[in-house]
Amino acid sequence: MLKVIEAWGVDHMYGYPGGSFNSTMNALDIEKERMRYIQIRHEQVGALAAAADAKLTGKIGVTFGSAGPGATNLLTGLYDAREDHAPVLALIGQVPHTNMNYNYFQEFDENPMFADVAAYARLVMTPESLPYIVDKAIREAYKHQGVAVVVIPNDFGYVQIPDELYSSVSPTDHKDRPLPQPTDLEVDAVLEMVKAAKRPVFHVGRGIRDNGAKLVELSKKLQIPITVTGLAKGLIPDDYEGNLGMLNRAASKAADEIFAVSDLVIAIGADFPFANAIYRTHPFKFVQVDVDEAQFGRHHYLDQGVWSDAGAFVDKMLVRSTDAEPSSFFQAAVADMQNWQAYLDHMLDRETSPLEFEQIYREINKIADDDAIYSIDVGDNIINSFRYLKLTPKNKWVISALFASMGSGVPGALAAQLSFPDRQVFHIAGDGAFSMVMQDLITEKKYDLPIINIITSNASLNFIKSEQDDIPMNHSGIFIEDQDFAMIARGMGVEAVTVRASSDLPAAFAKALEVTQAGRPFLIDAKITDKRGIPVEELELKQQDGTWVETVNPSYNANRALTHISSVQEFFAEYDGGELKSLPEIFAEHNVPTDK
Questions:
Q1: Is 209 known to be catalytic?
Q2: What's the CA gap between 513 and 451, in Å, rounded?
Q3: Which end is more exposed in the chain, N or C (fewer Cβ atoms within 10 Å of the end residue's Cβ)?
Q4: Any idea what DSSP says for residue 60?
Q5: How far is CA 582 from CA 185, 343, 529, 540, 553, in A?
Q6: Active-site residue, selected from the candidate residues 192, 293, 351, 467
Q7: How many CA atoms lie within 13 A of 576 on its CB side?
Q8: Shortest CA distance to 548 belongs to which of 265, 263, 291?
Q9: Of 4, 21, 38, 43, which residue is the catalytic one?
Q10: For this protein, what is any one GO molecular function term (predicted)?
Q11: Is 378 tagged catalytic?
Q12: Known active-site residue 497
């Protein structure tokens, strides 16, 4: 079985031993020169790490758990893999087949539990079939870009079977899959919609892959600004003036504002989990470009669907289009983004005591290698990373995107450093998320993984606290007990430092570089305030009497925990954004017409 997995190019797997998995542990010992066993301290970490491996490399990740609780502990990571379309193989221990159906210790029917999460789930029925079933499981995981589960009665692993070539791997597995291509008719129809639109916007997902530069060319040619999903961060150059960034909550002000006034949205390779809220705030024409025709209409009522590879669609749009006249709307979008970027730069450049979150990202950007890899845990750090972290196509980064599982940061960093041992790896997590998996800091120590761990610690589940700000309720359940994470890290043999003011950061990050360059992990416990980052998703726009009007959502500060504001400018000032301009101001400066 292990030789089959090795034949697919896998060189490490994650898990924790149990009595029902001892035959595979024996095999891992025999194969230790070819298959590296990574001992994690919780099966959830192993499954999340396997999912992160797949997201970062495109190659199947492998994890295992023993019968009973070992199996159930895997589920969170396996659902993360399913939701983010990451191929993962999970090997599950089972009691010896002679004890099955006798209510034996830790025995239960495991297949129904995995029926929902797995595209392929099988209980091995004979020792001879085990290698075949695992080979088939890997094929199914790749085919469905999801989870495959194989349950193995423990005694089967000790049975001698013929030494034959059980793997089906062949050179044909390395061929590029054919992708759907757009027709001239489809592209011309989209171009006609562009000509009829006054305020067109691209919304681009990770399906754009390595075609970001081509999309920039098309954006300039057609004078259409670009908004992106979170997973497309870095695929379109951040310094392109027409790249407005992300929508919704982990957003730039410019992206939310410009999208809110759009009359044509062209979504390209975008799987946007917040579409049902954001796409329905106002009417617009909708074009969806996707390689999976089953996705058409998933996000919005469809005016035009184009079943096509994103890159091929952009290529044909470039060929069949003519240069658009300079657009006041496009220039206003650029100005809006420049105004937003100036705000972000202002927030980064401040010195604060007590420490605030922005300066942490300033220091990360200073010391990060061009090809650094980031594992970003769920919570405010997702918003802040999207806004402040400098990412390019050279970087890799991993999050739990659609499932949004807290505690994904440590396993993502483990996967990054194991799969890319020669690259710099950062792990960024809040105290709530890190607390869920911090036992596996010892795994970084055990395997000498030089990860820079940055814990933003404010004794609050701040992402949820911000949500509760806008609900008529008291804050409930979101304040957590503070911990000395640096001391905890040192107790595990990991060097660490605590910082409480921005003036402490340069020395802390210099030490992090020194230690990790020597091949050891390091942890920075950054004690930050629990302030809320500016919630640009609360801005609302509409046309009224022939002019654009911008207001703040009436539900903002519904629990009255924040300062009362009565205007957009007061809202900006509350978040140290006195130089921010409203979109109507920017439209007036650029003479952008309304629909009347």
A1: no
A2: 10
A3: C
A4: P
A5: 40, 13, 27, 11, 14
A6: 467
A7: 15
A8: 263
A9: 43
A10: pyruvate oxidase activity
A11: yes
A12: no
**C-alpha closest to that of 287 among 306, 272, 269:** 306
Kind and range of the H or E element at 191? helix 184-196
Which of 509, 500, 492 lies closest to 437, judged by CA?
Answer: 492
Catalytic residue from among 30, 34, 105, 181 = 105
Q: Which residue has the tokens 């919304």?
A: 203
Handedness of CA 196, 200, 203, 208 (dihedral sign): positive
**Could you give the CA distance from residue 12 to residue 417 in angstroms, rounded to a whole number?**
12
What distance in Å separates the CA atoms of residue 2 and residue 12, rounded to the nearest whole number?
A: 10
Q: Which of 463, 509, 572, 587 is catalytic?
A: 463
Residue 83 known to be catalytic? no
The Cα–Cα gap between 261 and 194 comes to 15
